[in-house]
Every structure is written in structure tokens, then in C-alpha cells.
């Protein structure tokens, strides 16, 4: 019984209290400005690994709590929770945006 049927479950998040500072700009990727060619370019630089700040971690917990409240308030909460926990995978030439039943 390890399968997922792609559907469009809907959870009402209108009552969720999400902080005002979480908007589209909050999720934009920070772009590094490249320096002009210098001697530094000769040597390979090690890329810095992204580490979320404490503010982002706290924001994630806040949003998670609100989403879980909305899921629990849904009339079919048990089914939605099972649906979200189920395994999902795609094979070659399977596009999730085209899968609707």
C-alpha cells in the first residue's frame, strides 16, 4: 500500500496568523555579487554552505504550528495527515503539475 494518488486536497489557511515580515521577499535567494577578475579568480574558492539563521528557524516553527492547526481543523484531518505522510516519487516523464485525478 505504498502509493500516492495525486489529488488537490485543500486546507483553509485564511485564519492562520503568519508574521507580517514573511512575504515574497523573505524567500528570495540572496545573490552574491561577483568581483571583477582578479588574482583571486585563479584559485578555486570553497562555496559557503547555507545555514539558516535563528530568526528563520523560529519563523519556520511558527508557520508549522499554524499549518498544523489548520490541518487539525479540517473535517477530514485524519485522511489529510495520512496523505501528507505517504511516500511520493516520480519516474521519468512524470510531471506532478499534469497529474490530477
Automatic annotation (TrEMBL):
Membrane-spanning ranges: none
Protein keywords: Ribonucleoprotein, Ribosomal protein
Gene Ontology cellular component annotations, sorted alphabetically: cytosolic large ribosomal subunit
GO BP terms, alphabetized: cytoplasmic translation; ribosomal large subunit assembly
Any GO MF annotation of the entry: RNA binding
Cross-referenced InterPro entries: 60S_ribosomal_eL6 (IPR000915)
A Pfam family of this chain: Ribosomal_L6e
Name assigned to this protein: 60S ribosomal protein L6
Amino acid at each position: 500500500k505504498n502509493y500516492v494518488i495525486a489529488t488537490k486536497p485543500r486546507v483553509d489557511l485564511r485564519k492562520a496568523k503568519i508574521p507580517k515580515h514573511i512575504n515574497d521577499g523573505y524567500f528570495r535567494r540572496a545573490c552574491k555579487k561577483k568581483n571583477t577578475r582578479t588574482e583571486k579568480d585563479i584559485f578555486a574558492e570553497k562555496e559557503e554552505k547555507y545555514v539558516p539563521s535563528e530568526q528563520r528557524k523560529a519563523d519556520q516553527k511558527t508557520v508549522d504550528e499554524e499549518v498544523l492547526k489548520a490541518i487539525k481543523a479540517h473535517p477530514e484531518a485524519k485522511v489529510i495527515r495520512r496523505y501528507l505522510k505517504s511516500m511520493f516519487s516520480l519516474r521519468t516523464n512524470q510531471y506532478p503539475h499534469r497529474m490530477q485525478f
